[in-house]
Amino acid sequence: MSTRPAWEERPSLPGRLTKGLTLSVIALIVLFPIYIVMLTSLSPAATVNEAGGLVVVPDGFSLAAYRELFSGGVVTRSVLVSLGVTAVGTAVSLVCTVLAAYGLSRPGSVFHRPLLFMILLTFLFTPGMIPSYLLVKSLGLIDSYWSLILPGAISAFNLVVMRAFFMNIPEEVPDSARIDGASEFRILTRIVLPMSKGVTAVVGLFYAVGYWNAFFNAILYINDNAKWPLQLVMRQYVQQGQALTLNGASDTASAGALPPNLAIQMAIVVLALIPVLFIYPFVQKHFTKGVIIGAVKG
Q1: Whole-angstrom Cα distance, residue 223 to residue 226?
Q2: Distance CA 140, CA 3 (A)
Q3: 144-159: per-residue pLDDT in tens?
Q4: Average pLDDT over residues 123-134
Q5: Are 222 and 149 a contacting pair, CB within 8 Å?
Q6: What is the rounded distance in angstroms from the CA atom of residue 260 to the CA atom of residue 53?
Q7: Which CATH code is given to the segment(s) 71-296?
Q8: Domain ranges of the chain
Q9: 245: exposed, middle or buried (C-beta count within 10 Å: 0-12, 13-18, 19+)?
Q10: What is the pTM for the complete model shown?
């Protein structure tokens, strides 16, 4: 009688308990900082002052920090900037990546090998910060929202993954459409893309998270603080501890009416976390089917 490999055997009770305990500890390590940040942002001034810092035990509830953030100050503007850059940037990046990946997945496309070689070369060599800045400056994009989108409009990794997925589609499918007189663009939009919803959703998530979390391009190319994205505002006021101005007035003007500065800082962190935490569960189911299949079989 043949015996099954050890990894195919049912785990023993101690093994299952150890696995459950390990996963519980990892989940606690991940969730506990988020819990502290959210609790501090929702705590009243007396609780934050009594704790002398981050709040661990809840004692009261207050939305004062969020009311101040959304009352028309620099944070409100930065949220709108980040939402606009993320939406437009994700759309631009998806369109460019899909078109480039589909063209490079067709063996007979024009300049197929040289273009693919140039794209793969970017995995090894990057242009550098100074040449990138000089290029953006020569294009007149300094202090423009496009400077936050165009320099990273196409990710070579995402393009290669999507190209691998397109190459995995049976050649008979587009060939039958060509026989019926369909153009390449029609084949892409009516046949290939509907079959690639998984990889498109995952790549779109990668781009959206990248644009939402990006702040370094804003440091380089944006001099007007009215155009700062949320992540740069968070870096300036949370990490570096600069005083946050709300509604165009300094903190000292109405210190008694404002919530603690720490609560406001933690509220900014929560605002930066919410979109990713909200979107990820809806796209997570596509990860295995979308990216992994395309990457392995490509």
Answers
A1: 9
A2: 69
A3: 999 999 998 999 999 9
A4: 86
A5: no
A6: 10
A7: 1.10.3720.10
A8: 13-62, 71-296
A9: middle
A10: 0.80
SS3 for the chain is CCCCCHHHCCCCHHHHHHHHHHHHHHHHHHHHHHHHHHHHHCCCHHHHHHHCCCCCCCCCCCCHHHHHHCCCCHHHHHHHHHHHHHHHHHHHHHHHHHHHHHHHHCCCCCCHHHHHHHHHHCCCCCCCHHHHHHHHHHCCCCCCHHHHCHHHCCCHHHHHHHHHHHHCCCCHHHHHHHHCCCCHHHHHHHHHCHHHHHHHHHHHHHHHHHHHHCCHHHHHHCCCHHHCCHHHHHHHHHHCCCCCCECCECHHHHCCCCCCHHHHHHHHHHHHHHHHHHHHHHHCCHHHHHHHHHHHHC
Tokens for 107?
A: 């063996």
Cα gap 58→283, rounded to integer Å: 33
Dist CA 298 CA 294 (whole Å): 6
Position 211 scores a pLDDT of 93
